[in-house]
Amino acid sequence: MKPILSLLALFTVSLAACAAEDDPATATTATQEGVVSGPTILKAGTSTATTSASARTSGLQMDGGKELGSYLLAQYAVTPRTGDSAANLTVTAAGDASFVYILRGSGPGYVGKQLRLQRVPGSPNLVAAAATGMVTCGAIAPDTSTLVTLVVHAMPPRTFDVLLDGAATACTGLATGLEPPFVGFEIMDPSNEGYGGRVTFDGLSL
């Protein structure tokens, strides 16, 4: 299996080529700090998604195609946040379903703009991309709702914590290059072969 960073680069190229062919789906509009706006959904192949929304949170059910070339990207925006921020998502992943969650910032380069959490095929573990490399936070059990909280500390030295169902994990005090303002987040089924499956996200907020 190729490293996900290189595949994300390929995904970006494919996304630019296919964006004109996809109609964005829009849920709720943000009018207050922290309220989710979106998602805008871009997809190809057999990957699909359905959405739900309330006044302050959003939901998404992603059914990702596992064949090479199927992908889905759901992009959410919020009123920019400059201070310490907490992103929340309740995840229910079927079987060995995989996903990528990306918190978006405003710093220079890739690491300044993205902080990535992921569950890869064949493993129940949630893994975080820290400045020092990939760190296993803990397990998201199949077919079980798990609250994931990503807390980002805006002031240098910038660090982040990942909590599962409110409990601290091995991903505590990890260094990150992500810089504020924090402007939204993305949920993705990468175009890698084997990635995909059904994942339900509830209570999406930042």
The SS-based structural class is mainly beta
- Assembly state (oligomeric): single chain
- In angstroms, what separates the terminal alpha carbons? 32 Å
| Total number of domains | 1
Biggest sheet features: 8 strands, antiparallel
Strand content: over 45%
**Helix and strand element order:** HEEEEEEHEEEEEEEEE
If classified by CATH, what would the architecture be? Sandwich
How does this model look, in words?
This protein is mostly beta strands. The protein has one domain: Jelly Rolls (Sandwich), CATH 2.60.120. Helix content is 10%, strand content 49%. The chain is built from two helices and 15 strands. The protein has helices at 4-18, 109-113, and strands at 37-44, 48-53, 58-64, 71-81, 85-93, 99-104, 114-119, 125-130, 133-139, 146-153, 159-164, 167-168, 174-175, 182-189, 197-205. Strands 2, 3, 5, 10, 11, 12, 13 and 15 form an eight-stranded antiparallel sheet that branches. Strands 1-4-14-6-7-8-9 form a seven-stranded antiparallel sheet. The longest helix has 15 residues, at 4-18. The radius of gyration is 16 Å and the shape is globular. The model is unreliable at 1-33 (pLDDT under 50).
